[in-house]
């Protein structure tokens, strides 16, 4: 038994070492990526009632030279633990703001909004509010076209601080949405405490709602909750027409998902949405 135990320890040692090496490699790569501009923003359209294009959610991708695209699920956690998410987040926000500026002059695009994901580490950074405000003034972006997506996990510690930061940014017109609601350690108290504009119905509930009555019940509850709190409600992960039908039946009016379009680079987004190309 002792032998097995020791082998197990060794096995875990090796695995932990491999993980540590993988992390170190990723961190090294991310530092280079920041310097060498290897990140790309993808845009996934968001629609109101099927037809009207609201704007897009901005999703980061990493394109290392001569290697396949890396998904954010693989590098955001490392960016968070290393603090690299802070400079990365600035780049994301600045790039999104510049896009809003390009759209602002043309009446055909001036109404478009961009939703940008904000990680917990970013939000809790002491300079967060100042940094966002200086990116806004530096780019001249219309603040009311910008929505920041927060996840619940971020809001657990220091909710008072979070509310304070949100209120400061809301004074400038920035909007907030709560992402992934219902998937983490959510509390209803948090939902009613935060100065939110939008509630996102997580794709986990959308996925099976047209065939599992329990998922349907949860989706209905979230949508009703959002509506009774006068929040915009948007469903993400809409992949087929049945899901769309169920969501509409429940009173959800804004949608995002593969049924409409996958996230794509800006040129493809502009073409997909048949938007005028800015000069
Ligand atoms: P999220 O914010 O919940 O983003 C939604 C994810 O669902 C995206 O994955 C999107 O591509 C995917 N998705 C959209 N429609 C569908 C659909 O119909 N079906 C399915 N199965 N999936 C769909 P992605 O782009 O791989 O991003 C994963 C996560 O990484 C995001 O989850 C977010 O938490 C994080 N992330 C992505 N971009 C950023 C960023 O710029 N900053 C930060 N802090 N986090 C980001
Ligand atoms: Ca999101
Ligand atoms: Ca989400
Ligand atoms: Ca998610």
Automatic annotation (TrEMBL):
Coiled-coil residue windows: none
Sequence ranges assigned to domain EAL in this UniProt record: 23-277
Its protein name is cyclic-guanylate-specific phosphodiesterase
Q: In which organism is this protein found? A: Nitrincola lacisaponensis
Full-length numbering of the shown residues: 581 to 859 of 860
